[in-house]
Structures are given as C-alpha cells and as structure tokens.
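Consortium newsletter contribution from the modelling node. Members have asked for a concrete example of what our holo predictions look like. Here is one, prepared for the 4'-deoxy-4'-aminopyridoxal-5'-phosphate complex that several groups have been discussing at recent meetings.
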Amino acid sequence: MSGAPLDVARIRADFPILHQEVRGRPLVYLDSAATTQKPQAVIDALVRYYTHDNANVHRGVHALSERATLAYEGARERVRRFINARETKEIIFVRGCTEAINLVAYTFGRSKVGPGDEVLITAMEHHSDIVPWQMLCQQVGATLKVVPVDERGDLRLDQLDVLLTERTRLLAVTHVSNALGTVNPVRDIIRRAHARGVPVLVDGAQAPAHFRVDVQALDCDFYALSGHKMFGPTGIGVLYGKAAVLESMPPWQGGGDMILSVTMEKTVYNRLPYRLEAGTPDISGAIGLAAAMDYIDSVGLDAISAHDQALLEYGARALESVPGLRLMSQARERSGVLSFIMEDVHAHDVGTILDREGVAIRAGHHCAQPLLSCFGVAATVRASLAMYNTREDIDALVRGLHKVREVFA
Ligand code: PMP
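And here is the predicted structure:
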C-alpha cells in the first residue's frame, strides 16, 4: 500500500476501540500524543502469544520457552529494522521513553558526568527528559543548561554553539515536542553537537507514529521510543544506543539475564543487549510492538506522513473559525499536535465540554511545564492526531469548540 494515499476508512476498521459511543456520541479520539489506539493485529499478537507460546525467555530448554525466545528476539530484530540500527545488540527493551532516559542518566550519566560538567537539554523537553538530568546533575555536582525556545515554538538554535562547551557531556533533545508539535532539526543539531565531541540523546516518543526514523542517518548516540505511542502496547519501549557507547556503559539494574556467572565474590556481566535488561522482560509487549511496526509498515509511513500533515493543516485552518482561539505553535515544522488556548475559558473546562460531545482531547501542561511557562500559560488544550483520524474528527472538535464559546459567551 506504500506510495498510495491512505485509505482511512480501512484503517479505522482495523481499530476496534474507535467504533463506540461515548456519552451517547460517536467517539472522536484526538489524544494520540498521550497514547495511540491499537490495531486488531497488535491485540491478536498479544492474545496469540498468551494462548499458544507463553513461557520465560532465554532460560528454558523446552519448546514453549524456545518459541517465546524466538519471538522476543525476533521482535528485537524487527525494531532494529524499523529504526535502521546497525545491530540487534543496539536495541535494549525497556518500559518506555521514561525508562530509556533514566537508564542513560544512571549508567552513562553517573559514569561520564562529574562535578563542574554540564548536561544540555532544551526548553521544550517532556518532564521525563528534564527530571532525570536534574537528578543526575544534583547528585554529581554538574550543571543543567537549557536551549531556549522562541515565541514561534522553535528552538533558539543560534544559541546552540554557545551552550555547547568543553564541559558539555551530553545533549538531550526531543525529536517532536508533545506539547507544541514542533519537529526539531535533530540531524543538524546532532552534527553540531558531534563537531564539539558531545554525544546526543533523542527523545523519540512522538516521532515514529508519524514519520520514518533512521538512527544511522540521524547519527544519534541514543534514541528513546515508547511502544504505546506508536500503536503498540503500554509497558514496552526501546533504548537504541550505538554499540560502542552502550559497551562503554556500566550495567544499570542487577538481576537475572544480565549476568554470565555469579559467585558471592564476583559477578561476570552478560554481553549486550542482555547486560542492560535485568530480569524477565516484557515478552508479550515486545511481540506486540513488533506487530505494531509490521502494521505501520503495511500501511506505509510515507502515506501516513502525508495524511497526518494534510490533516494538521486542515485542523489549523478549521480552528481559525473559533472566536478567541489562539494556536500556540507557529513552528517551521510541526507534526501531530494542535495546541491552543481559548480566551477567558480554562483548558479543563474546554476538555469537560468536549468530552460531553464525545471528543477526547487533553487539557493541561502535557508534562512540559517549563515550556508552557515560556509562553506565559499554565495549561493548553491539545488535540493530537494519528493515522486513523479524519476531517470529520476535526469538524466534530470545531463544533464542540463553538459550543464552548456559547457556554462561556
Ligand atoms: N517524551 C515525550 C516527548 C512524550 O510525549 C512522552 C509521553 N507523553 C514521554 C517522553 C514519556 O513517555 P512514556 O510515558 O511512554 O515513558
């Protein structure tokens, strides 16, 4: 199907949850930046695994354990292919972006960042790409530096070369802002950081549901993914790391699977990727994530990107018809998110009224309080899109917003 326009009706048929009424209205789901819905293929993969193959991985000699191991390691290869990593040992399964970033902050961070060093992040990071670095800096006596954001919602990249110093040990930047939808020019940012010898972590939570991510083309040192934001299950995510960088990091959690041998005197650690995956992993989650990647590729990311962009533009124009509504972001490149405020109406009231119309959006700070405070607001309304959304969904949102205006007239 790749190359052809998106057949949204067919895609919607693959997502059973979308076909329900909420508060007596057909559900309009516009909260995919918080979590995406799951296609039947992902749900089936989970049911199939638990119905036929469930066993623990890597240890068993019996048939079910062999099947579970093959499926789990097959999922790792599927992820490698999806993001074009060089080797499967560069794919570490974790719970999600939050755990991926914490892993890097604990292992890479605690071994490579010391007193007087600097960690550079940006003003548009999600809390999960701020707090782990704050904790690290506080613990080791390092300083957290921040690339500011301009009033349009773009990073102030003119500041980057000043903020990258000989003390910078890591730059962490989001690929797409979950609060504004800004797509950052991460390839260029990485090139500039590498020119100063600084490794880069990219928070990819909001990217792979919308466009192709190629970690070799980006040349990032780390890339963090959450399965549930790309049509996969909750509880599974990925830390990609360049093999040489991962090899240089001490283990994080200790336990089963991350060891080759243990005596009371000494533990010999396992090789990658197992060294960074202590304990029984989320086997079904990894299998479900692989099914989600199969699903995305069967639809085709080029078609998905074109659909999402067209819908975003349609949405931005449609929102202009609502009196007193201000779109937050005018960033050069945007993806998936319409974030706005309404004059004299609190975002939560907008959310409550829209919910009565069956329209699911998010109201609040979107775990990006520092970013919102740059814009002088405490909360926004966020409608976020995915491949199953239609112009009718946007129209329902706009009708709901006109009702909000009537209520608060
Ligand atoms: N980064 C960004 C940009 C996000 O949008 C999110 C989730 N909203 C996260 C990180 C954290 O992801 P998770 O909660 O799946 O760990």
